[in-house]
Structure formats: C-alpha cells, structure tokens
Amino acid sequence: MKHEDLTRYLDDLLEVARFKDYCPNGLQVEGRPEVRRIVAGVTASQALVDAAIARDADAILVHHGWFWRGEDGRVTGIRKARLQALLRHDINLIGYHLPLDSHAEFGNNAQLASRFGWIAEGRFGEQDMGWIGRPAQPCALDALVAGVGAALDRAPLAIAGDGRPLRRVAWCSGGAQGYFEQAIALGADVYLSGEISEQTVHLARESGVAYVAAGHHATERYGVQALAAHLAARFGLACEFVDIDNPV
Predict the structure, then answer these.
(1) Mean pLDDT, residues 118-138
(2) Which of 22, 52, 167, 191 could disulfide-link to 183, CB 3.0 to 4.6 Å?
(3) Measuring CA to CA, which residue among 20, 51, 22, 23 is closest to residue 38?
C-alpha cells in the first residue's frame, strides 16, 4: 500500500481536519513509498524506532509522534539520533494524537470503556475529549480500581472521595487531569485519567468525587492497537504492536 494512500485513509477515518492539535497528525516523516509492515506503539521513542528497524518495518504508527508545539525545533542530540535512524532506514513515521483519543471506535477513550465495561453516554471538555457514562452496575471505589488495574495490568493511584456508590463515571486518557472540575460539575462520582497533579488530590477530597490516575502510557496503549488491527484486517498489512514499558 502506498504511504500516501494509507495516510489519506487514516486522516479521513480519524477526521483529522476537525481537530486543533499540538502537533501535526498523519505522515510526520516520509519514508519508503510502499508500506507492507507496520510497527505500532504509543510513543515514537528511540526504543520504538530501534524495534521497527529490527523488524524491517516500512512504517511506525504512534499516538505520540514528533514536532510538538512549543518545543525546541533544532535537530540536535536525541532528536538528531531518532530522526537519523528513521531516515537511514527509510521508515515512515505516522502519528495521530487527539484524533486517536477521540475516535468513537478506535480511540483510546472508547477502548478504555470497552475494557472496563463502562457505558458511554456523552462527551465533555475541549473538543469533546472527555467521556462520561456509567459502569455496568454501581460499585465501590475499591472494586472499580481493582477492575481498572486488572484491565490495564497496572495498579492505579486512587484518591478517595466521600465513599458514595459510583453510579456515574467520567474519563479521559493521558494527561487530562484538567477536566476533573468539569466532570464534577456534570455529576460524576469518579473521574479517571492517566495522570494526577498536586491540586487534584485536594479537589477530590473537598468535592467528594473520587479520582483515579491509571497511567498516561497505560491508558493510551489501546487506541493504536485497535487502529493497527483494523489496518491489518482491512488491507492485509502486517501490523505488530510493540509495548515500550513506561511506568508513568
């Protein structure tokens, strides 16, 4: 499959044009024209680039790519090493950030709901990135945290609220702790994201709404996996997810 056909398909599927993002979405670094083998991962780190080289991949598909707004644009040091390795081996780098958080089927938030058994009922926050709904049945915080930990194979950090039964749950993958107050205003009993900030602890204690920090990397592993599986099924591409461990 030609890389321009692949990225055109993905751009349309993920509705890239409707998002205001912090980085370019789609083809970020052009490699060889033909794509047969894809390595997928969360972040385009040196370790993932090395894994793609070892597997003779034609393209790397990630959630966290390169060229973030506000970062130093000079290609030196770590940036040079990553880019040099990619160009030397003629590998395409394809990244989708907010579009891959948001997508109703392949997005990180949709995939989390599927794994946790949560029922989505609405969206909130900037560009409708946050999701709100309910668990399959009301539960206590300990039970919800245990289920999340089992699904992600990672123990979450939980800040208890007032002990109420959890009937309404809100969530957003990655570094979305800033949506917590909006989730509270919408009547959530618990909010889950990847990260937590110092002030988040006080907000949970004072509002009575529990907060679960399940890991930025851990909550954003599944969108790119689902997207890669879709490409394999639809186009017969060889797609392999490589999980570069990250404790954050």
Answers:
(1) 97
(2) 191
(3) 51
